[in-house]
Amino acid sequence: MQSQGTLGHQAFHANPSGALGWFLRETAKSSLIRKLHARAYGYYLAQKGGRRRTFHGIYDDFAAATAAAPASAEIGFDNEATAVLLAESRHRIFPHDYPVLFWLSQLLRRDTFLFDLGGNVGISYFGFERYLYYDPSMTWLVHDVPAVVSAGKEIAGQEHAPSLRFTTDYAGIEQADILLAAGVLQYLVDPMAPLRAARKRPKRIIINTTPVYGMESRVTLQAIGTAYCPYRLFNRAEFIQGFADLGYIVVDAWECPGVGCYIPAALDYSIPALSGFCLVLNGGDAD
Fold this sequence. Notes:
9 helices, alpha/beta, disordered N terminus, about 25% strand, globular, 11 strands
């Protein structure tokens, strides 16, 4: 599970637009052209796709998606090239970040413990620090794979980020007041496992840039520029029910315009806009 790693920003969710996007969507409606399209796109993915941010294919599980990647490709995020892929954009925020920024502005207080699942090198911490007050007593604990954690610790030292910490295990979830999961759940083999295993669960969960739709849950394969990653597409009802089973209720939900999952050879499974949610542990304060 941990070896799958995580990302969190819009650059990793390609959604072609304009004349090219229209042409690809229209031609793929023909069954014959769709087959030819799939074959050509498969060739493109094998030859160049690893250097592009693209999606390919629909699979039943992570193992099948992984098997479809080129044999020589890196799989997942635990490698040096991928570890620093988002580092340069860590001081930027995007339109889809604003709902998260709003909720954190309401929730961050003295002694707050935030567990940033798949937080990369601290991209949310650094991106939001111009807009939020980080009390010196606060802890912002980023979870990620070893290569990313190593890069994150080095950056945090350079940037003098005293509240920022890094870990490769899930134990910190039990101390957390807030669980932040921005652009990560789709990369985990069992995204609910850390919460299921926790003896004490966070009162709040904030989710962002997650592929949720009305179709059945499936898996696609994403090329992120340095590696290939299985990428889960969640059925909305099942996704929400999974959190309900753990005691959470949804108090807010939003779409992320311009951040989608476009699968050229499987347009029915493409998602125009990813989703975000704010959830509260049942019986907790929803303010």
